[in-house]
Amino acid sequence: MGFLEKGAFVLIKHRNSQRRIYLDNAVYFITFKTYGNFPYFKLPIFCDLFVEELMLCKTIKQFELYAYNVLYDHVHLLLKPRRKYNISKIIKSLKENASRDINYVITGRYNVGDTSTCRLHVRGFINECRKKFVNQYGTNQIHFPPFKWQQSFHDHVIRNEKDFANHYNYVVYNHQKHGLPENWKYTSLKP
What we know:
It is a single chain. This protein is of the alpha+beta class and 191 residues long. It has a single domain, classed as Transposase IS200-like (Alpha-Beta Plaits), CATH 3.30.70. The protein has helices at residues 44-61, 87-107, 120-137, 161-177, and strands spanning 9-13, 19-23, 28-33, 64-70, 74-80, 154-157. The longest helix is centred in the middle third of the chain and has 21 residues, at 87-107. It is globular.
């Protein structure tokens, strides 16, 4: 696993976004949060759905996933993109699909004008999540606002093996820092 190897890199800044550095063969530590730090992921149903979307995104966007941790109001990832998809494209896809699916579980409907298609093998899982959610909270849901992520995400380019080890440990054990159980199910370091 090369760190900051020689190769092409691109520095891009889109309007109203952070400056991003895209390096070939780089590993990135990434963090993103729910809008207003709302603790959606206190519900295992939303954690399960997010992890399902993460694994599907990993397959579709063809990135290496070294570690993840889903906490009540934020997510940490340690990943290495492939040439075709940079970190911005990966995170955009992951956030959009997770938002769409979690909002369906909450409301029972997809947004009007939603042009994305729910992948068929995930549709059954999403429908099961919706049934569990309705059994617990009912259909006139008042406990959860519509699911949204905070805009953008934080990224850090891993510089060397020590930096990788530090960030790996930070990601997989971060639930302990937040007072969650040691056997937290939503980390890549599952017991």
